[in-house]
Specification:
Number of strands: 4
Strand order of the largest sheet: 1-2
Number of helices: 3
């Protein structure tokens, strides 16, 4: 279904069997997947995306503080708590 939804694009997704998917992404659990889709147009530019997230965070009245991280703690709702000295 996902592959069919992308057929209108000039670069169509390529279905990968389990072995092909694991060759591209070695950490995949082979017993948990039946295959994969290779979407060559689905990428980002991290050096441009990260500053954009910071700008949006500050625009929404978030406060950005740069200081050493002492501990990271994953919460039940899948958020990450960042603990610093202050």
């Amino acid at each position: 279904m996902v592959a069919q939804n992308h057929n209108k694009f000039s670069i169509c997704p390529q279905y990968l069997n389990v072995q092909e998917a694991c060759e591209l992404e070695p950490l995949l659990n082979t017993s948990a997947i039946s295959g994969g889709l290779k979407l060559p147009h689905g990428h980002i530019h991290p050096q441009k995306t990260n500053p954009a997230y910071f700008q949006a965070f500050v625009r929404l009245e978030g406060k950005l503080q740069i200081e050493p991280v002492e501990q990271l703690s994953t919460q039940e709702n899948l958020t990450v708590e960042v603990i610093t000295a202050t």
